[in-house]
């Protein structure tokens, strides 16, 4: 490796952004879904805005998994292996962390995110696949979210404690630490140990003095989920065995919760700035964790990454600085309708060609296309659209409708896998009245096609379990309106009939959402699409004018910079 590549990033003090997963590109499967994609967009915006961040994540050599779906909708998982040598540079440092009484050695790879505007940021990928380690320890950084509780805690030790040591070994000067979810909370313990040691009166050995306030001044924490299962918890017996002499267990219980080591609680207690990822999520987090101050910084999507080629051309011509200042898209009404529709038609054709190649399903250029793609799990309710198949057939008889779906279920999520099978049965039952396809192997490249090629983007979570959601934000950059349950970001983004349509209201009960969705499709969405092209284009432009302007990671990172990074320690 050319040492100068790393040296370029060592001259400036940095914000260390820790995340278990970061979506760098589709060919590097170090992400499972929204959390990792958001982390990648965060780093891409940091590069565009020339913010001094350094990302820290795991190499995850076996990736999340490669999804295979048979004709019955049964999901099978395969390792999604990738070779860091082909995408990143090895860095000249190795450090060790003690896990269960043994030294586990860690190396790192450098991946550089280059902005197409100006600037770049480094991402470190931590790797235990080293000859110094046992065969078991070499696999610690192998599978993203794989294995049992012990495996997961080992990964979090490598990420948090190992990441802090690696940054120091490489010569990074870190001014703040940003924890993207609780997986990285153990970095705070590493800082507690590192910040100050003192000789206590009457003792010959040096003893640690834990300076919690000083650590809190260095750390910011973003929590991402109101779903209880999304907050990592570990038995203290396991934590004591694996962490060994890293910390005082009495202090750890005080900071991490009495019953078990709750990584969210640990982060809440050791981070001076805490935020949720939408206004409603911040409110929900304050209810879940009373007594803690939780700010709201709504998520976003990276402008250039998620904008289709046709819309990029439009924006480049009319708003030359849009990549740096997405608020310029607020003037989208100055762009002729014909240009907007032509860009959308090109995106639809690219998606339909992909669907035909992948699934052998022929979709029509003239038919309204509804897309749904996200992690397949119960609270996302991917089957809500199919709650009344006969009603759906009747709606499609009056106004033709076609559907494209995609998404992975976690290997251990039995309900999520069952939902994929159910969706395949519904798709088969609707033929030939409602053409539909389920795309296997959902990844970033597929998501780019779907958020641009849809006529409307569907989201049907069970409130209040959607912390934010970002797929609809990506769609907005392509003039694609959302049809979504009012939860997460959509509470802020929905202007009825202007940026899209809300499913129900804050007062409606969840069982009514299916009927409300059908009512919106039948009486508002489909008639507008087929009978009033000018009116439909107003909604497309409304999604750009309001949602793309607001829900982007440039705005998000500027908020983090002023509220979290530049605050007084």
Essential attributes:
about 575 residues; alpha/beta; Rossmann fold; 2 domains; six-stranded parallel beta sheet
Record the SSE blueprint:
Layout: H1 3-10, E1 14-19, H2 34-48, E2 53-58, E3 66-69, E4 75-78, E5 89-90, E6 95-99, E7 102-114, E8 120-127, H3 135-138, H4 149-170, E9 174-180, H5 186-195, E10 197-198, E11 207-208, H6 212-218, E12 219-222, E13 233-234, H7 236-243, H8 249-256, E14 261-262, H9 263-270, E15 273-276, H10 279-288, E16 295-296, H11 303-306, H12 309-318, H13 337-359, E17 368-373, H14 389-398, E18 401-406, H15 414-430, E19 436-439, H16 444-453, E20 456-459, H17 471-476, E21 482-485, H18 490-493, E22 500-503, H19 513-531, H20 533-550, H21 553-565
Parallel strand pairs: 1-2, 1-9, 2-8, 9-12, 12-15, 15-16, 17-18, 17-20, 18-19, 20-21, 21-22
Antiparallel strand pairs: 3-4, 5-7, 6-7, 7-8, 10-11, 13-14
Helix pairs in contact: 2-21, 4-5, 4-7, 5-6, 12-13, 13-16
The main β sheet shows up as: 10 strands, mixed
Indicate the CATH class of the largest domain: Alpha Beta
The number of helical elements comes to 21
The second-level CATH architecture of the largest domain is 3-Layer(aba) Sandwich
Specify the CATH homologous superfamily of the largest domain: Glycogen Phosphorylase B
Number of domains: 2
Q: pLDDT average, as an integer?
A: 94
CATH fold assignment of the largest domain: Rossmann fold
Helix-residue proportion: 40-55%
Q: Could you give the count of β-strands?
A: 22
**How far do the termini sit from each other?**
36 Å
Classification by helices and strands: alpha/beta
Question: Which value, in Å, is the CA radius of gyration?
Answer: 24 Å
Give the percentage of residues in beta strands: 15-25%
